[in-house]
Specification:
The protein has 254 residues and is of the alpha/beta class. It contains 8 helices and 17 strands. 23% of the residues lie in helices and 31% in strands. Helix 6 (199-209) packs parallel to helix 8 (228-239). The longest helix has 12 residues, at 228-239. The protein is globular and about 50 Å long. The relative contact order is 0.16. Bound molecules: zinc ion (2 copies).
Amino acid sequence: MSYSITFLGTGGGRVVVFRQLRHSGGMWLTFSDVNILIDPGPGSLIRILERGFEPKDIDIFILSHRHLDHTADINAVLESATESTKRKKDLLISPSDALLECDSVVLPYLRKGLKKLESIYEGKEISYKNIKIKGLIKHIHRGADTFGIEISDERKRFVYVPCGRFFDGMLEGYPENADIMVFNTTFVHPVPNIDHLAASDVKKMLLKLKPKKAVITHFSLQMLKSVPEKVAQNLSSETGIPVVAARDGLRVDF
Ligand SMILES: [Zn+2]
Ligand SMILES: [Zn+2]
């Protein structure tokens, strides 16, 4: 059994993603023997193939929220993974506002390629084989319902903190002592009126939640200028928790 996460891309924020200063395309999570593609933003299909993964090996698709930097390539990957809907995939999970009939990020004709669409919300639990996928606290993230996500089995617990503005409820709304936490850490310092986490917020969460390991990703230009590796190093020394700055293609075992 292996547990690893590969960062297909690490860009976040309009400039970095839509000028591809860092790749985008989400994360490939291998959890026990289940392959999960999380947040397939622009270029995901290319990055999957480039990293030597096979789209047809994906078991579950997870969209943390409907924004384009997290969903732009879902249709291309679905087309590839399902051989144009001929080989159905088991499960796609997303907040319900990403799958509205009138405004779905998944093209209607491709839904035939999925056995099941599940919406995620606070407290929702979805079982798949021997793993459990759980919706955590609702984030403040303008224009898109967004929830924290926990994936666990009897051995390991992976926690994803997607995009959103920090608020104190997040300190209670996330579980303690996860094996790994991935934080979409767009900024170094919070930017007023932009609903994204900053490294100073991540520090508060690490001190309270004490995961065994943490990764920061989804970087804006502000973060890239401050050098994510340095920011991660500071977080490590301030919290005593090993924090890694993701690079495009980085694989982290946990
Ligand atoms: Zn977003
Ligand atoms: Zn985002």
